[in-house]
Amino acid sequence: LDTLCELDAMLAALGDNVRQAFLLSQLEGMTYKAIAETLDVSLITVNRYIAKAVQHCLIYSLKNEL
Fold first, then answer.
1. Helices of type H across the chain
2. Assuming Cys at both sites, which of 8, 21, 28, 43 could form a disulfide with 49, CB separation 3.0 to 4.6 Å?
């Protein structure tokens, strides 16, 4: 539960679509194509959303290690 709360706090700084795309990918196991259809965006946009979310998570993790 603590991990989910921390993840929620970490993703709170992202835009709604970025957060939703990341969660659909990681928690629901949806393909990028399915996410694109769900969010009504292009596949390239989903790739950008996921990349942004992963980058944000890495930076957040590094800041918390210091």
1. 2-11, 16-26, 32-39, 43-65
2. 21
Task: Determine contact, residues 42/36, Cβ cutoff 8 Å.
Answer: yes
CA 17 to chain centre: 8
User: What's the pTM?
Assistant: 0.84
Q: Which amino acid is at 8?
A: D
At residue 58's C-alpha, the angle toward residues 25 and 34, to 5°, is: 15
Q: CA quadruple 21, 27, 33, 35: dihedral positive or negative? A: negative
Render pLDDT for 8-64 as a digit per residue (tens, 0 to 9): 788 888 899 999 999 999 999 999 999 999 999 999 999 999 999 999 988 887 877
What whole-number distance in Å separates Cα of residue 49 and Cα of residue 27? 15
